[in-house]
Amino acid sequence: MKHTVSLLGLSLLLGACATPSPAPVVSQPQPVSQPPLASSQPAAVVPPVVQPAAPVPSTPTTQARPAAANPRQLLAKALPDYVKPREGWRDDITNAFSALQLSPSAENLCAVIAVIEQESTFQADPVVPGLPRIVWSKIGEKAGGYYIPLGLVKTALLKTSPDGRSYKARIDSLRTEREMNELFEDMAGEAQSLGLPVGMKNPIRTGGPMQVSVEFAEAHVRAWPYPYARRGSIRNEVFTRRGGVYFGTAILLQYPVNYSQMLYRFADFNAGRYASRNAAFQLAVAKLSGSKLTPDGDLLRYQNGAPSRSTSSTQQALASLRGKLQLSDADMLRDLKQEKSFGFVDTPLYRKVMQLADGQGGRVAREALPQIRLQSPKITRKLTTAWFANRVDWRYQQCLQRTR
């Protein structure tokens, strides 16, 4: 039987090249008068929604140093020696803090530095080793599912792309996510003339020096003004140094928490905002119900950004506690829908669960590292959110030492 490869089918094949990474929740930011308190790549979180943010609370267990009188001087000491161009990175970080109205304390600046160092070692457009192999492997897997020989797919990709090279040549020479993003943008732009679906979406979900979700960035600009003149789409801005630093700083610091260590912000950066708080809540529910719950920080199941009809394991465990909590299923669902906001801690469900758990042997933790296995074509080792958070925290402590 003769096999043919249409470009419509080709879009289905290429759509498997990037692992989906749902975007973190976007809280509508408010000016921060004091530093957010200390507390990538897939994140098990829901798509972005805009919610008002509460003021950053104080905490009795940690005392952040005051903001630097001259953040640029502080950054001169905080940045690792190998960083180049130092002035460029320094300016992009300080501009992000100013635009986001965040306090440039040593703790906050070092938190951003630690994430950049972990995610890209200060490469504005980080190289992904073996990216062509990863892409061809995924295309081959998908082609096999359609009984299409990979050779025929490569023949179809010999068509010339807008930059003058064939799509095949561009895949063969891929080095960075920015290049991969541009490849898919060109294919989407030529969709109608090439026979691709007009609504074809770019499957690249994260990018830039802090590995920020494109979906988060697109939601953030709807809640907070982007400070730079755009060079194309917000998606393209994510892949620049200035845009990557700006949106990465926003997702890391521009939301209120009452964590005792920055460590838990790093976990949230990887797993989704408030995942560390929610993981501790799940541990409290497990303690009260005797259920085996994985503390992954997701209290509900979601579909297309809204709670699905499928009941989560956390909901099932809570259902066994109706009598003790004196809350109906509807009451609990109402409160669980606030799991991606700071206000969840003020709901009757959260207060009653934590109060009951405290009464069984002492105060339970209000924060815990989510237990999530990281999945991505780029990850070849068994890594977890806890590994990520601890690794970033190690870099964070090193940075603080440089500022003293």
UniProtKB/TrEMBL annotation:
Q: Which keywords belong to this entry?
A: Signal
UniProt xrefs under InterPro entries? DUF1615
Q: Which residues form the signal peptide?
A: 1-23
Which PROSITE patterns does this chain map to?
A: PROKAR_LIPOPROTEIN
Q: Name one Pfam family in it.
A: DUF1615
- The protein's name in its UniProt record: DUF1615 family protein
Organism in which the protein naturally occurs: Vogesella amnigena
